[in-house]
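Memo to structure team: turn this sequence into C-alpha cells by end of day. - J.P.
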Amino acid sequence: MKRIILFIALFIAVISNAKAQKGLSVGANAPAFSGIDQNGKKISLQTLLKGHKSVVLFFYRGQWCPYCNKHIKELQDSLQLLTSKDAYVIGITPETNENIAKTIKRTNAGFSIIQDKDDDIMKAYGVNFMMDDATFSKYKGYRIDLEANNGNTRHTLPVPATYIINRSGKIKFVHFDPNYQKRASINVLLKAL
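Reply from structure team:
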C-alpha cells in the first residue's frame, strides 16, 4: 500500500511538471533531426522520409520505466504490421547508450533507438520537461537515478509522446499526454498510418 501511495505522489508531481509542455500539432512541419542508433547507424529524418511512406517517432523516459518498456514491447510485437505500411519506427530517449542496451534487452526492440544526449530532439518536438528537485529525490529513493541513467545532471525527461510524420515532413498524428501511463495503442497507430 505504501508503494502505491508513493507512486501516486510521483505521478502527480511528474504530471504537474509535464503539463507545461504542449508538443507539436497535427499539420506542423516535423523538425529535422539526426543521430546514431544503437547499432551505430546514422539516422536522419530526411533520409528516412525518402525511403519510407512515414516515420513513427516516439519518445520514452528510460529502461527503468515499466510503462515505457510495455509500450516498446507492444511496438516490437507489432513491428511487422507497422513496417508493412511502409513506416519506420524510431525511439528517442535521454538515457545513455548503456541504458538503451538494457531497454533493448528487456523489450527485444529491433527498431532504431537514439540517445537525445543534449535534449535537442525533445526540445524541437516540445516534449522535454525538467523534473523538480523534490521529484528527483523521490525517484532516487526508488533507486531511479536519472543522473546515472541519462549521463547528465539536467533531470530532463520527455513526455512519452508519439508522432507519425508523413513523407512530406508533416505531422499527421500526435499522441501527447503528460500522464506517462498513457501511450498510443498499436491499433490507433495502424489506423493513422
